[in-house]
Amino acid sequence: MAGLAHDTPIPESITLHSQSRVLEIGFADGTRFRIPFELMRVYSPSAEVKGHGPGQEVLQTGKRSVDIVELEPIGNYAVKPVFSDGHDSGIFSWDYLHWLGTRQDELWAEYLRRLNDAGVDRDAPMATAAGHACGGHG
Asked: What is the pLDDT of residues 114-138, one digit of tens each?
């Protein structure tokens, strides 16, 4: 994911809406998405969230009110949001943001299913992972 493929959707506009907590992104192909900060946070493409391999994903909770306090450009292929909970290790490529936008409904349903399966409420505080040596923030 270090470079752009020939079919990578390129954004023409990116706007953070702090009040409604959504990132609005418009792509050159005409698609436009409003991606909630919470969805971005719980599906962050970081090792802290995804783990270091299949089955090591860390279920994120308590992220309903998370804000993006900064959005750093990463070259010409991605952005790195800094979330209000301190999480800042996810690099969101244009491909990944397009994927999040197109699959929002499916991803929300999957997230709610995982919460239900774990018997955890969406607003529960994050459990601390003792001994997790991945670095990064909560």
From this structure: 999 999 999 999 876 543 444 444 4
Residue 100 in domain: yes
Give the residue from 131, 99, 133 showing the smallest Cα distance to 25: 99
Neighbouring C-beta atoms of residue 112, cutoff 10 Å = 11
Q: What is the domain extent for residue 42?
A: 11-118
Q: Strands, DSSP E only, in the chain?
A: 11-17, 22-27, 32-36, 68-74, 78-83, 92-93
Q: Residue 78 maps to which CATH number?
A: 3.30.2020.30
Start-end of H helices in the chain? 37-42, 47-50, 94-102, 104-118
Q: Which residue has the tokens 């993006």?
A: 68
Task: Say what angle helices 104-118 and 94-102 make with each other, to 10 degrees.
Answer: 80
Question: Considering its fold, how many domains does the chain have in total?
Answer: 1
